[in-house]
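Entry for the shared binder. Reason: the reviewer on the internal report wants the predicted structure included alongside the sequence.
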Amino acid sequence: MRGALEEVLPDATLLIHPVSDGGEGLVEVVVAALGGQVVQAEVRGPLPGQRVEASYGLSGDASAAIIEMAQAAGLPLVPPALRDPKVTSTVGVGDLIRAALERGVSSILVGIGGSATNDGGAGMAEALGVRLLDAGGELLVRGGGALRKLHMIDLSGRDRRLERVSVAVACDALNPLLGPSGASRVYGPQKGATPADVELLEGSLSRLADVVHATMGMDIRDLPGGGAAGGLGAGLVAFCNGRLSRGIDLVLDMTGFDQQLQSADLVITGEGKIDQQMRFGKALSGVLERAVRMRKPVAAVVGTVEGSKDRFQGPEGFVEILSLVDETTGQEEAMARASHHLRNRTREIVRRLGLV
């Protein structure tokens, strides 16, 4: 997109501002803003027996850690044929948090997006010393499906270092844990859940919420963002005293987006897909809201648009939206030559807005 703008608007000043809503890219964006470093760690992956190489960030003074849950439990780590949120686990996210605790940090930012999981953070909790037990006092196997058998939560072995660390959670979606807009029903199918699986997972997360309430006196059912990353948002609140925030707002504040926005005449942004999930806190909505607040026009180049793009345009919306996938370009072609099509659509947006 930048290359296309340099060609058609050679005299324009371009301000390039990487963003993340808490999903992939969070570590890279925040570490760059804080002058920090990226650290490697081997952790348990989302599948049983899987090990993955993950990375997390440290701030310049090493007092804060930045973690992307997708590094340890992201959907790309699970081959399509093996995607099953009844068995995938967030245990590796707990491994990353423990690695950060061993560095002596005083604060942790956990970005939760792009997950392959639907276990309410149960795997993460296990990695941090929490024991989730069935009616016979046996440890549950990992995965969202097993939570339907949850009977008791034993917190006696929880890592005590969590008591001295603040945990901020950057959610890429503000869905609650349960219900029509909850983790299982909205995102479960994307992770390989069948309709029957969705109902099983909904019941499992409801069981988790019941036992958390009975054990800890905490209601995690309706927290905005509690359903993000398969319920990891709710799990981080319950087991790590996490504070949920819309990820895009945290990142835009940390990276000084508003200051750059003040001098801009036009904002051009992008996303894989524009759909109704925008209203749940995706990056695109955060950029749009801030620009509209400052009366800055926003155009978007996206992979696809669900339904008519007209519903996303207007006084409080985008001035223009162009999609890589259209009547002449199919999805496979758009993905195979994404750079080529991004450049073409960016040039076209500039022409449509009358800038050349």
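Summary line for the report: The chain has 13 helices and eleven strands.
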